[in-house]
Amino acid sequence: MRHSPYLALALLCACGQSDQTTGITDSSTGAQTSGSSESTETGDETTSSTSAGPTTDGTAGSSTGSTSSMTASTSASTTDATTDATTGDPPPLELWDEHRGALHVHSPFSHDACDGAGLMNGVPNASCLADLRAAICATGLDFVHLTDHPSYMKEHPFEALLLYKPGDELVLEDGAPIANRIACPDDSSALLTVGYESTHTLPLGLRHHVDEAFYGGLTDQDALADSQALVAALQGAGAFVAIAHSEEEDLSAQRIIDAGLDGMEWYNPHGNFLTALGGDTLGGDLNDVLGLIDGLSAFMVGSDSGAHPDLVYLWLLPSWPQEGFDKWREVLRARPITGLLGDDVHQNVSVDPICAFGDPLLQAACVAAAEAALPPSLAGLVSGGSLIMLDGDRLDSYARILRWLENRALLPPGEALTPDTLRAALQQGRSYGLFSVFGDPEGFAFVADTGDATLQIGDSHAGPLALTVQTPTPAPFGNGGAEFTDAQASTVKLRAALFHTDSEGTEEVASLDGPGARLEYDAASPGAYHVELWVYPEHLREALGDQEALADTEYLWVISNPIFVEG
Fold first, then answer.
1. What is the Cα–Cα distance from 386 to 422, expressed in whole angstroms?
2. What is the number of structural domains in the chain?
3. Is the four-CA dihedral 470, 441, 36, 427 of positive or negative sign?
């Protein structure tokens, strides 16, 4: 008997690591927003103001002068990126090409994808597969790392897992397919690779199937030698070996260090969901549940809020788990490791009927009470089903989740995106994570100058290095997400923070407010230097309709992998 289905909140990207069936079917996503202390410059030094939220050491709450709000070094300086004392323009930065991509994406070959009906008599669900392909093309992604659960994918030919259809171009190695360039209607293409997700294990870009023993998970409970053998075998099969769900307690930073992993998720939306709701399903006090539903309903079909449905993510973001970011910084104290944003999208979130009594009288009473308690936009959930948003699409659609967040891989100018060049970029940490729901960070750059050459994100060189952070202005993608004008883009409140991590920990060493400006910092101390961009999304205030108060929260927009100063 199920009659506490306000499990409607158990939404977002179904994780697939849970077999929960009460209320929400295999749900798993979430979001995040943290706020380290805001800084304002005065003369040569930065004074900290108070900002609530997780700090860089993982402690929550307001803080003034904490580790996350260190006074900026006097070696930092700022310049307007649109002016220069002699030429009127800043010197151009030597930048590499950016390639947009998603990872931790589940296709119909995952047992829990497509509302649990990914395979129909052994054949991929045609409608769900079409949704995935259309979303990849509509979002304009350059690459997608598929990571299906092993239970189905390991039983199917490798070529089938590449989702090939006539018009696509298979990428061959020694005559065997290792990737697929799917053809899009606008004559563009996206590079698809195969991997899998087990318990934490997330190999990206496998070249072929592996032995049964190497479709396993990786936790602290496993023998270290077994974990090292698993990672080595997957690397030998061509994969960049990452781990998913870094925020979870069963995999420590020390095991990540020792196992030889290449990368780790900073975050995926499922972690947000767990933090926000305390589990994969929600029940309990009706008043608490209705409070959460009120926030969701403004973005759902039937609402007159005027809010763009993608911006429901802003409502979810403030309760993300900080642990994945903290664990990444802890690993960085010992060795380099590439940070990643995962999508963990399955298109499988559904809500069980609110009332499921066998007795007709009890059923009728439950339905009447539920319809009276729920706002009009949620009345349809009495009978269960998908969560349908104002645009008529489901909350957890492939298209929506792929519009929410992505990764940018950096390649030398003109170098082709191939399985080899993509793997090399990720291995070298030449990437940054982007919460694309806030727009394209047009003009963002983070580089270093040795005096003889320009270094990119992921590079390592003896110090001192002259670091430059160029702050962006948001630009709309034009792919179905929230739109905004140039004038609205100029209203964004942006804060760039430069962090230094060494064996002693992480501290903020410099910051800069505002778009279209440059922060310059002389980095002499050995360690890892990474950038975070935080925004108050004033540019989305109109798109939020009557939910405009969400623009008054500070959200993480961009997080880079480090540039390293060698000791």
1. 35
2. 1
3. negative
Q: What is the CA radius of gyration of the chain?
A: 23
Joined together, the tokens standing for residue 222 give: 């496993």
Cα 463 from Cα 564, distance rounded (Å): 9
pLDDT tens digits along 395-415 = 899 999 999 999 999 999 999
* Residue from 16, 50, 17 nearest 36 by CA: 50
The list of the chain residues with pLDDT below 50 reads: 1-74, 80-82, 279-286, 288-289
Rounded CA separation 545/308 (Å): 8
Flag whether 513 is in a domain.
yes
Q: What is the pLDDT at residue 134?
A: 98
In a domain, 467, yes or no: yes
Residue from 276, 409, 395 nearest 346 by CA: 395
Q: Which domain holds residue 497?
A: 41-95+430-566
Is residue 505 domain-resident?
A: yes
User: What pLDDT is recorded for position 276?
Assistant: 57
pTM of the model: 0.86
Q: Are 399 and 130 within 8 A, CB to CB?
A: no
| pLDDT confidence of residue 154 | 97
pLDDT value, residue 10: 36
Torsion sign (Cα): 270, 271, 275, 279 = positive
What's the CA gap between 537 and 260, in Å, rounded? 38
The number of beta carbons lying within 10 Å of the beta carbon of residue 357 is 16
CB 94 within 8 A of CB 83: no
